[in-house]
Amino acid sequence: MSYRVRGGPWGIAVDLTAGASVAPEPARGAEHVAGRVWLDLAPVLRHPHADRSGVRIAGDEAAWLRHGAALAASAVEAGAPAAHTTITVHRVYFHPCHFQPEGLAAALLLWAREEFGPPAHPGEASFDAAAGRYVYDWRAG
């Protein structure tokens, strides 16, 4: 899944590969996000540095993936009533010149929208010329 936004002199581009598994119990090692939604970031936290197919993300970047998962939680739960859903982020790729960490949350929201239907939070971006960066509206639509 590719997330792209461009509205100023530069853009944000994040490629994200994730999957969801549904089970009666939460997956081992996954982090609780909300309700019956869990997040497994192990593949992207340990991604080999020499592999050009993805990026090893840092802790502050992982927080943005958690934020995206939390915003998508209601849509994820609606797709799997009475079961635990674990979202595993397998791969993240971005070029540092076309990246802002908030784009990770938006990319995960886009992935969740494709998998489970529209989340309540659109995560839409607009370019703030004075700040020289994109700002996101995370409010419920």
Task: Give a topology summary.
Elements: E1 2-6, E2 11-23, E3 31-34, E4 37-40, H1 42-45, H2 59-79, E5 84-93, H3 102-116, E6 124-128, E7 133-137
Helix pairs in contact: 2-3
> Runs with pLDDT <50, length 5+?
none
Q: Distance between termini?
A: 22 Å
> Fraction of residues in helices?
25-40%
H/E series, N to C? Answer: EEEEHHEHEE
User: What's the story with the biggest beta sheet?
Assistant: 5 strands, mixed
What is the CA-based Rg, rounded? 15 Å
* Average predicted confidence as pLDDT: 90
Q: Helical region count?
A: 3
Name the overall outline: globular
Number of β-strand runs:
7
**Strand order, biggest sheet?**
1-2-5-4-3
Structural class by SSE content: alpha+beta
